[in-house]
Amino acid sequence: MTPDDITRTFLDHYHRHDHQRAPESSLVPPPGDPVLFTTSGMHPLTPYLLGRPHPGGRRLANVQRCLRTTDLDEVGDDTHLTVFQMLGSWSLGDYDIATSLRWGFDLLTGGFGIPLERLHATVFGGGSGEGPDDTARDTWTGLGVPVEALGEDNWWSNGPTGPCGPDSEIFVWTGDGPPTGTPSTDARWVEVWNHVQMRYHRHPDGRLTPLPHSSIDTGMGLERLEIVLRGDRSVFTGDGLRRWVDAVGDRWDLRDEDLRVVSDHLRSAVVVLGDGVRPGNTGRGYVLRRLLRRALTVLWRDDPARSLDGLPPELYADTLRRFRQVPGPSALPVDVGSLHATLVDEERRFRGLLRRGRPLVDRVRERGPLTERDYHWLHDTHGLPRDLVDGLLAEAS
């Protein structure tokens, strides 16, 4: 199944269960939202999970593009990406977790054809004053799916405050031969879907208070589901990533992990640019700048003459098509030529910064190991961020 096939099958399944399609949001949250980027499918729906009526009703489904900087250090393995698409469904005070899990099981085994014996679930086993999730456990057992009860790993929150509650995660066996072990003991069990019971609101002081109504929030990574259905092991073999891996690999000879990091970061940068963000020294602009500079640092490790200038523009267009851009002055239309020019200009700026930064770092280093005061001076006076300084130090050692 292609990503388009998967998305259509997912949405059709929930439409048959009377879910309306929730509009996809930009990666850039609306004014007043404290987060830099949309990090999950539920994030744009937070006000409605807290009790506000949604204009689309109490049953919703969609596909939402997301960006997570918390996983940057994991990018390069088989399953983590910086920007990805999340298939989501929601019950806003309507049906319960048992219904959500049964419908999810029907979709995985019927709509996507995953054999029952390749499924394993985890549920909240209790902790921090909360009892075990017996309803989720009994539902999975009744469906014939093995269950593992865990602690904090199965308590979901989108941050230190806000909606939270127990969750049930669904794993698919990706190993050769019959499944063995459990999700917590064998990494060949890959998580594909999370069903969260949004029961509580966590306050800054840590208190939990019940939400006006209990809701269900589910999220399933499109790229990860695609590789499971294809029988592959890595998200970088899927339709959305393969074109970047092929283009980058054809142009530059890179080690496998470096190839993945460069492909992910450049693809992510294109999506962020498509949502109207431009490189800068703070906030969203700095996240974009950091992605580009991390990719360039890897490229220049073996050959400083490498340049983004020759990347095919159709690669950008294909990426923006896959990540459907939200109408609005900052997102549409996207001028691919202008986008490419922004990447090349950022490369030029980074080259200049490295040229100026090397002698500065060398001079400070001659006095001994860098102190926090040295890092602050290099950043505040000369615009050299800590990760760049550390890269220059590694270069010199």
From TrEMBL:
Residues 1-397 form the Alanyl-transfer RNA synthetases family profile domain. InterPro entries: aa-tRNA-synth_II/BPL/LPL, Ala-tRNA-lgiase_IIc, Ala-tRNA-ligase_IIc_anticod-bd, Ala-tRNA-synth_IIc_core, Ala-tRNA-synth_IIc_N, Ala-tRNA_ligase. It holds the Pfam family tRNA-synt_2c. The keyword RNA-binding applies. The keyword ATP-binding applies. It comes from the Bacteria. Its EC number is 6.1.1.7. Belongs to the class-II aminoacyl-tRNA synthetase family. This is alanine--tRNA ligase. It comes from Micromonospora echinospora.
